[in-house]
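PROTEIN ENTRY
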Amino acid sequence: MRPSIRHTLAMIIAGSLTAGATASAHAQVKKVESAKSDKNLKWGPAPDAFPAGAKMAVVKGDPTKSGEFVVLLSLPANYRIPPHWHPTDEHVRVVSGQFLVGMGDTLDAAKTMKLAAGDTGSMAGNMHHFAIAPVPTEISVRSPGPFAMTYVNPADDPRKRK
């Protein structure tokens, strides 16, 4: 019996969460953890592609250029990122708090996977997903640049509200 695409996707996500980071990603995790206490880390508002309220600090690279980058995102309680996608793979690690991630074109809290501090997950490029931070949460995101974010529903894009 051939597994469905949904079952295969669930197994890939679950595998990435339970297997933890690879050796190279493990080294990156250590960099992110030490960056949290780095006084040279500059926090500011997240790019306008994110809903208002998030803060961001660049740990490594430049998200606006080609090449790998790592950023920390600080999200307030009840923060929601509507369904969206990125053209590149995205690797997320929860530094503190709780991060709920779901797949699909509609934000549905009942269809999320709960990630706690230390948990990791990966989304393939072009995968439609959404996220909720029910409590103050900090995540690290590692991805190839340049960063791009496209909302499934254009009306959800904060850049369109200006």
Summary: The domain at 5-161 is CATH 2.60.120.10 (Jelly Rolls). Residues 5-19 form the longest helix (15 residues).
